[in-house]
Design a protein that fits this description.
The protein is an alpha+beta fold. The chain has helices at residues 3-30, 36-62, 66-109, 130-186, 193-222, 234-252, 270-287, 351-361, and strands spanning 230-233, 255-260, 265-268, 293-301, 304-310, 365-371, 374-382. Strands 2-4-5-7-6 form a five-stranded mixed β-sheet, covered by helices on one side. A two-stranded antiparallel ribbon has the order 1-3.
Length: 414
């Protein structure tokens, strides 16, 4: 074959390739919303057309015999038929898999969870290309994540409804009592006027404590609780809580036994952590049996500071332990509040959930477990220490955690 003939063949092949390629691109653009099967077939047909046109141009340039030309046409026809058939099979498989993914997306939209894996982890679905298989796995993962989110949302909504119902009940009771007492005072029917005033003040303090708890909890749940990190001596913080709650503990005949490391530093926000400790102690006093003791200790565990409160509440049923830190949860649906605790105990069922939120905001954790005759709450916080302060007049340090009587404890929820 001469060089001029070769260049002629190549020119014709290039001409047909450009012409058919441009026409194919135009058709693909016009059929961009068509199915994958149609587009794959169009690409294969275009490829076969370029091949046929190039071969015909070559045959004409080489002036081959009619018999050889007929044989080549048969070969091209069979090859084209096979290529188009294979493209149909491939396109049909891709189309089916794409349809499955579309249906999977619809199921996710309807709130269903995708489960396409068979027993023992084997996939029940037909094999896909790596791209489509990766897309299917992402859809499955998204489906599971959405299902978990829906479950969490449903649990939160249920807890919110229960909390609103319980708070409404707890607010209605003191309000009704206050109204009855004020009406009696207004009508001059109260025999003990000063006693009625004291009861009204107690009811008001109880509602104030409940509102304060709700405000603190709302800040925790909304992520707007602002903590001012500072190095605190947990020993002093617990000593202050014990002193504040001693009168209530004395009324209930509860003895407090304190001890632990003389200096135990932690980086924390003083007011919020004191509130958490106070709630734990309050629960211990409320649920411990009279004439028993509540042991409070401060120490370290693997580099963390730990505040532990152990009471004699008789223990908590194992099935109730996972619910103790849920907002609004209470074992007793009656949710009665003893008169001696009014003003210091909201009874809203949010005390321990607030404790858990405060400790978590500090980067720590709170745990509970049953021990002999009661249960033990442990607040674990990141430890820290202050640099050596400059010499200054120091006030006398309070003594070791003395046996005082408080009004909080770990036996239940407040």
């Amino acid at each position: 074959m001469e060089g001029s003939e070769l260049w002629t063949i190549l020119a014709w092949v290039l001409f047909w390739a450009v012409l058919i390629g441009a026409a194919t691109l135009l058709l693909l653009r016009l059929l961009r919303r068509a199915s994958v099967l149609v587009r794959i077939c169009l690409v294969v047909v275009a490829t076969v057309a370029v091949l046929v046109a190039g071969m015909v141009s070559a045959f004409n340039a080489m002036f081959i015999s009619a018999r050889d030309l007929e044989v080549m046409w048969y070969i091209l026809a069979v090859a084209s038929a096979v290529a188009i058939a294979l493209s149909l099979v491939l396109g049909a498989g891709v189309s089916r898999n794409a349809a499955r993914l579309v249906e999977a997306a619809r199921r996710i939209g309807r709130g269903e969870t995708l489960e396409t894996s068979g027993p023992e982890g084997r996939r029940a679905a037909p094999a896909m290309t790596s791209e489509l298989a990766a897309l299917e796995q992402e859809l499955e993962a998204s489906s599971r994540s959405l299902a978990e989110s829906r479950e969490r949302e449903a649990a939160i909504e249920t807890a919110r409804r229960e909390l609103v119902s319980w708070i409404s009940h707890d607010l209605r009771t003191p309000l009704a009592s206050m109204r009855a007492m004020t009406e009696a005072l207004e009508d001059g029917m109260a025999s003990d006027v000063q006693g009625y005033y004291r009861k009204i003040i107690g009811q008001t303090e109880q509602m104030t404590a409940m509102v304060n708890d709700l405000l603190e909890l709302s800040k925790i749940q909304a992520g707007t609780l602002h903590l001012r990190a500072e190095a605190l001596d947990l020993y002093d913080l617990v000593s202050d809580a014990l002193s504040d709650l001693a009168p209530l503990a004395a009324k209930r005949g509860i003895r407090l036994d304190g001890g632990g490391d003389r200096e135990c530093m932690a980086v924390a926000d003083g007011p919020s952590l004191a509130r958490a400790v106070r709630n734990i102690l309050l629960n211990a006093i409320i649920y411990s049996r009279p004439e028993t003791d509540v042991h409070v200790s401060v120490g370290r565990d693997n580099g963390n500071a730990v505040i532990a409160v152990q009471d004699h509440c008789g223990g908590i049923p194992e099935e109730d332990l996972p619910h103790l830190f849920e907002t609004g949860w209470q074992k007793d649906p009656a949710r009665g509040t003893q008169g001696s605790l009014q003003g210091s105990y909201s009874g809203a069922g949010i005390g321990l959930s607030m404790v858990a939120g405060i400790v978590k905001a500090h980067g720590g954790s709170v745990t509970v477990r049953n021990v002999d005759g009661g249960c033990r709450f442990a607040l674990k916080l990141p430890a820290g220490s202050l640099p050596e302060p400059s010499p200054a007049p120091a006030s006398p340090k309070p003594g070791p955690l003395e046996t005082t009587e408080t009004n909080e404890g770990p036996g239940g929820t407040s």
